[in-house]
Amino acid sequence: MFRRPLEFLNSLPEQGDLVEIRLGPQRAWMVCHPELVHLMLRDTRTFDKGGPQYERLRALMGNGVVTCPHGEHRRQRRMLQPTFRPSRVAAQTDLMAREAEALCRDWRDGQKVDVSAATLTLTTRLISRLLLSDSLGPAAADEVRHCLAAIVRGLFVRTVVPVDVLFRLPTPANRRYRRAVERVRELIDAAVAERRVGAPRDDLLGLLLTAAAAEDGTPPVTDREVQDQLVSLLLTGSESPSMCLASVFGLLAQHPEVERRLHAEVDTVLGGRLPDADDLPRLVYTRSVLTETLRHSPPGWLFTRVTTRETELAGRRLPRGTTVLYSPYLLHHDPESFPEPDRFLPERWLEGGAAAGPHGALIPFAAGNRKCIGDLFSMAEMTVALATIAGRWRLRHPTGRVAPPRPGATLGPRSLTMICAPRADAPGGTAPHAVAAAPGAAPAAPGVDKSRRDGDDGVHHA
Questions:
Q1: Which residues pair with 326 in a beta bridge?
Q2: 315 lies in some domain
Q3: How far apart are CA 386 and CA 391, in angstroms?
Q4: Host domain of residue 160
């Protein structure tokens, strides 16, 4: 599980639908069949968020909507849901397009771009604007991105080796992790304090502050809950979509026919302009490319639950407090659900294809009432970003072997460097500012640094 996690996961279905494994000294059970996973995810009262993963996440994110136990979830989700309604997501589309265009505006022909860092820059900016408007300035958003690299490094090993004493030692890695967690909370606290004395804003922080001041008899929203909601949504809302976008550009470069078909759709639908909300339903193949990326390389690849009472699953009695795991990666690579699972085939998701595969095996955003609250927002921002960048640039792998994605707290390329080339065949000709890179030019795009390389391998450098 620690050394070769993806290979290990793919070996488990041969052992049965529910397989006993060990996480350090702890006994746990891996659910290997999609119908059993859905049964578990629908019964959140029995299979609550918990186990080694969520114990570590609560230390990081507190008790917000991502990590809270079953008894707290409905109230929190109802409070936050207005921010993620389809109409609110549609209203963000123009901002998504402008930020994506700004990200690649100054790229140059032949330039090496740290795609992993670039996509994280984009998603951090977008989720921070949704949550906090401009209360988290560019410098603070960049610092959050730096902290996130250190946090992601440490989370995976804390899940698969749940021996607390190891992480209380004053090692450099443990100190970096703790400092990154503290710094993210400090930055959020500063933004909240500034907002309390400023003008009201129509964002998630404004919604939380209004709820905190309400006197209608509902349970009070404390200062700690405000912080927990912002930290958890900021971190999950930046890391996972950035991993998916980095994965999709890496996969497109290895599948030129898919890339050509994507470019043809983007050129036909957009004609060289930026996408808006009305374009999203028309970008059918673009969305299929993203859906297939979420199947092939799901950022959220491993999750834990814990039983709150004695129960039965797949004919086995599970005592109260049992750790149960499921893996979207395992389900998405089951050949019974997805023939030729290692092939990248966006055509699976075109008209006539099963909406989520047999047995509902496609679950990149989970399922049931704990399904990701930001799934619509994430799909919209990724669709807009992919269409905007692909309408202007081609990204190519440097010569040499393409490294497979390595799993950490999320799955995806953490140091993906690619070479950009303007699309001369795009409507309107070459991309803006698509000039040749000067000899000796810096390899990374302006404003994009090596924070992903610093956090390259969430397993071996944790």
A1: 31, 303
A2: no
A3: 8
A4: 53-297+363-446
The domain tally of the chain equals 1
Q: Which helix (H) or strand (E) holds 30?
A: strand 26-31
Which of 181, 211, 206, 180 is CA-nearest to residue 192?
A: 206
CATH number for the domain that contains residue 293: 1.10.630.10
pTM of the model: 0.89
Rounded-to-integer distance, Cα 276 and Cα 282, Å: 11
The dihedral formed by the CA atoms of 334, 44, 412 and 448, expressed in degrees to the nearest 10: 160
Stretch (H or E) spanning 119:
helix 115-132
Cα–Cα separations (whole angstroms), residue 147 to 108, 126, 185, 409, 412: 28, 17, 10, 14, 18
Structure tokens at 169: 């030692």
Residue-wise burial string across 298-330, b where 16 or more C-beta atoms lie within 10 A, e elsewhere: bbbbbbbbbbbeebebbeeebeeebbbbbbbbb
- Residue 423 CA to residue 392 CA, distance in Å, equals 5
Q: Does residue 453 fall inside a structural domain?
A: no
Evaluate whether residue 158 is within a structural domain.
Answer: yes
10 Å CB burial of residue 337 (0-12, 13-18, 19+) is buried
Q: Is residue 316 part of a domain?
A: no
Q: In a structure prediction context, what are the per-residue pLDDT tens digits for the chain, which is 462 residues long?
A: 778 889 999 999 999 999 999 877 789 999 999 999 999 999 999 999 988 778 878 888 889 999 999 999 999 999 999 999 999 999 999 999 999 999 999 999 999 999 999 999 999 999 999 999 988 888 888 898 888 877 877 776 776 666 677 778 888 888 888 899 899 999 999 999 999 888 888 899 999 999 888 766 677 789 999 999 999 999 999 999 999 999 999 999 999 999 999 999 999 999 999 999 999 999 999 999 999 999 999 999 999 999 999 999 999 999 999 999 999 999 999 999 999 999 999 999 997 555 566 678 999 999 999 999 999 999 999 999 999 999 999 999 998 777 777 777 889 998 899 999 999 888 865 555 444 544 444 444 444 444 444 333 333 333
- Write the secondary structure of 175-186 as one string of H (helix), E (strand) and C (coil): HHHHHHHHHHHH
Element (H or E) spanning 36, and its range?
A: helix 34-42
